[in-house]
Design goal:
single chain, 7-stranded mixed sheet, mainly beta
Length: 120
């Protein structure tokens, strides 16, 4: 069973940067697409917003329009780690950020989340 652990969240001023890290542990023969979601204050689990994804086979990346050009997702397969580099942060980026792993044969796997707060 694969488990995910996020780190790197914190408090930053508008215009600042943070890099989130997601480390995967456990063993699986399956290939996963890795992604990030976020849950803004006051929104429930159903309100989680998809942020970015990287294909586990060809490493193609995809972004929500709200973060395109500011966020970059990448992965280091040797370290079982996925990153989300966040630049030019805005107050509306404030949220709990969740790392996920998914494929076509298993339910999506979620990490515990890491808080990102952007002050104005």
């Amino acid at each position: 069973q694969v488990q995910l652990q996020e780190s790197g969240g914190g408090l930053v001023q508008t215009g600042g940067s943070l890099r989130l890290t997601c480390t995967a542990s456990g063993h699986s023969p399956n290939v996963y697409d890795m992604g990030w979601f976020r849950q803004a204050p006051g929104k429930g689990r159903e309100g989680r917003e998809w942020v970015a994804e990287i294909n586990g086979r060809n490493y193609e990346t995809f972004y929500a329009d709200s973060v395109k050009g500011r966020f970059t997702i990448s992965t280091d397969t040797a370290k079982n780690t996925t990153y989300l580099q966040m630049n030019s942060l805005k107050p509306e980026d404030t949220a709990v950020y969740y790392c996920t792993a998914h494929n076509n044969i298993e339910p999506r796997i979620w990490g515990q989340g890491t808080q990102v707060t952007v002050s104005s």
